[in-house]
Design brief:
six-stranded mixed beta sheet, Ubiquitin-like (UB roll), 696 residues, Creatine Kinase, Chain A, domain 2, 12% strand, single chain, alpha+beta, 4 domains, globular
């Protein structure tokens, strides 16, 4: 058994390691940079770099890399060794402050949305000292930001850090208005629950669609799926348990606070949940977690699938983004306390979140938009594409009393009566949970449930921080001028709730009735990425992000273009894969089965000439008809893919893929799945859904 406290953070150049290895003055200067954003002197950086290198070498590292998060959605790294030649033909191991602070990767080969031309190659990475360096695969990994030679942001990390600084500034204004002079820093924290599937590696290798697309493009439903709810929180299979055990240990070495593990709803689906951390570190850790999950799975003869919808007919995978706001004095600003009706500061913060979510539904929706997530949202397993907020019974009652100028009588904590002497009675929470809500209050945080399992959470949290900061800024402008802050705050909360109450919904978000009600309320229903992405660079959003220096208009337009292009490219890859599977594997397999059926029918008739129709004849007729239809659907999909090449505008191209290519793929799949259901298993060219989902 591992000694968890001993291995935890053993591969991280964390605060304890820095305190132990750095001179006191250097350590204090670095802490000032981390906690207060103070510039770091190059001489200090040199000392830090030397200590970091010595520590890394002791742990077997020979290289270093600036580890960054470009717009690909994954991480990137270029490795350089520590070696430096000497006059006598040997080498020494060196690493300078300059190398620590700045790197120069090629910026032209990463998505830029037109910001960088191919021939304009130079880009820069800049050390993020607030996120600890770590050792992975023999390299010292230094978390960094990434920008172009001309200064435009090309990564997901820089805007996130900017948004954290903005919400810190605006929240401190609110606290100061309430007389808080001790808090010097406000931080947003995130805990990202990670859902995933595990499938057998040998089975995976036999599926072209999983290899190329991370999801199945064909597959008839098995006799058993998730209908019995027997997998959720069920006993973890030995092979999966061994994987989870090693995964925890590996994550702990990187200082990642892996806390909870369990089976999820669908067969072969599981979840890992960490303890919260600051938004930028939580983002780094989630990116690292996804990479380690795949590496560890490979060692156990499995493949970890992070696609939002790898299998039709069973639940897809999300990544619940648990978001909160805390102070450096240890206060959670989203903690309602025992009497939320009298907690004016909490009500102001809550009102700011309500205002932000209502006014910026478009941004929250597009922050989770992807080709994969479009398959998941609204499928009775995840929230719909409509943004709404769940506040629970108690907070809803509090807001109702505020709107109606009524006295709020808080009920004592209800007691759960177990009615069995051996079982203890216990206090219930004041509100239930709503798993259908996209944005649910869960006690002292908001759980944003729409984020897709494969997505980088930086974009979502950049937007959350920015829109709430904007609401807090408006509130601070008002409260700073008030003679009586308490009265002004009460009026502000009442007015805000009245203006934005349409966004609050505590019912079943999966129901058709809610979608109709949401439309009556004027809430947006942006079902797919092509529908919502153009809103990124709307006048409202350009003004918002420009006001706080998060993005320029050029950067917003580039992000919209990058995401639209990626959407089209992914669906194009899926369509080409589907055509390859259909033409090269499925058609020959069905043809072969029909031929063998014909031979069997002929043999039967040779034995009994009067038997005109045999079971094989009926099946042949059915499969021949299906195959004929299938070939026609292949032609339709072929033409749809070719048609996309004629559309140059990225937004129009993405919409074309949504409306024409995806629909053609779905029609092709429907026929293929019907043929699979009517064929002998040994003829079908791919492992079945049942084999994939129940093979581990």
């Amino acid at each position: 058994m591992p000694n968890v406290p001993e291995i935890f953070g053993s591969l991280v150049f964390n605060d304890a390691t820095m305190k132990e290895r750095l001179p006191k003055g250097t350590y204090k200067a670095l802490k000032k940079t981390i906690e207060e954003g103070k510039p770091l002197d190059i001489n200090i950086a040199n000392v830090v770099a030397h200590s970091m290198k010595e520590w890394a070498i002791e742990h077997g590292a020979t290289h270093y890399t600036h580890w960054f998060q470009p717009m690909t959605g994954i991480t990137a790294e270029k490795h350089d060794s520590f070696i430096s030649p000497t006059d006598d033909g040997k080498v020494i191991m060196e690493f300078s402050g300059k190398e620590l602070i700045k790197g120069e990767p090629d910026a032209s080969s990463f998505p830029s949305g037109g910001i960088r031309a191919t021939f304009e190659a130079r880009g820069y990475t800049a050390w993020d000292p607030t996120s600890y360096a770590f050792i992975k695969d023999g390299s010292l990994c230094i978390p960094t930001a990434f920008c172009s030679y001309t200064g435009e942001v090309l990564d997901k990390k820089t805007p996130l850090i900017r948004s954290m600084e903005v919400i810190n500034t605006q929240a401190l204004r609110i606290l100061k208005a309430f007389g808080d002079t001790t808090t010097t820093r406000v931080i947003t924290t995130v805990g990202a629950e990670q859902e995933y599937f595990l499938v057998d590696k040998e089975v995976f290798k036999k599926r072209k669609d999983l290899i190329y697309c991370d999801r199945t493009l064909f597959g008839a439903r098995p006799p058993k799926g998730q209908e019995l709810d027997d997998h959720y929180f069920g006993v973890i299979k030995p092979r999966v348990s061994a994987y989870m055990k090693e995964l925890d240990e590996e994550l702990w070495k990187f200082g990642i606070l892996a806390k909870t593990k369990h089976n999820e709803v669908a067969p072969a689906q599981h979840e890992l949940a960490p303890i919260f951390d600051t938004s930028n570190i939580a983002t780094d850790h989630n990116q690292l977690t996804m990479a380690i999950m795949k590496t560890v799975a490979d060692k156990h003869g499995m493949v970890c699938l992070l696609h939002e919808k790898p299998f039709a007919g069973v639940n897809g995978s999300g990544k619940h983004n648990n978001w909160s706001i805390s102070t450096n004095t240890g206060k959670n600003l989203l903690d309602p306390s025992k009497n939320p009706r009298e907690n004016t500061l909490f009500l102001v913060i809550l009102a700011a979140v309500i205002k932000a979510v209502d006014e910026h539904q478009d941004l929250l929706r597009l922050s989770v938009a992807s080709a994969g997530n479009d398959h998941r949202l609204g499928a009775n397993e995840a929230p719909p594409a409509v943004i709404s907020m769940y506040l629970g019974d108690e907070l809803t009652a509090v807001l109702h009393s505020i709107l109606n100028d009524e006295k709020y009588e808080r009920k004592s904590d209800p007691i759960m009566e177990t009615n069995a002497e051996v079982l203890p009675n216990f206090a219930k929470d004041t509100s239930d949970r709503n798993r259908t809500s996209p944005f649910a209050f869960t006690g002292n945080k908001f759980e944003f449930r729409m984020v897709g399992s494969s997505e980088n959470i930086a974009c979502t949290n950049t937007i959350l921080n920015t829109i709430v900061a904007d609401a807090l800024s408006d509130f601070a402008d008002e409260l700073e001028k008030a003679e009586d802050v308490k009265t002004a705050a009460d009026n502000l909360v009442k007015r805000t709730v009245e203006e934005h109450k349409r966004i609050i919904f505590n019912g079943n978000n999966y129901s058709d009735e809610w979608l109709a009600e949401a439309e009556r309320r004027g809430l947006l229903n942006l079902r797919t990425l092509p529908e919502c992405m153009p809103m990124y660079a709307s006048e409202k959003n350009v003004k918002l992000f420009g006001k706080y220096g998060i993005y320029t208009e050029v950067e917003l337009r580039s992000r919209s273009e990058i995401l639209l292009e990626k959407y089209s490219k992914l669906i194009n890859i899926e369509a080409l894969t589907a055509l390859d599977m259909a033409k090269k594997d499925i058609v020959p397999a069905v043809t072969s089965y029909i031929r063998d059926l014909a031979q069997t029918a002929s043999l039967v008739r040779s034995i009994d000439p009067e038997l005109a129709i045999t079971p094989e004849t009926d099946l042949m007729k059915k499969l021949t008809s299906l195959l004929s239809c299938f070939v026609k659907k292949i032609d339709i999909l072929d033409k749809a893919v070719m048609g996309a090449k004629e559309i140059e505008d990225v937004a129009e191209n993405a919409m074309y893929f949504k409306d024409h290519v995806l629909s053609a793929m779905q029609e092709l799949r429907a026929v293929a799945d019907e043929m699979e259901s009517n064929m002998a298993a040994k003829y079908w060219p791919y492992p079945s859904y049942g084999t994939i989902l129940f093979s581990v």
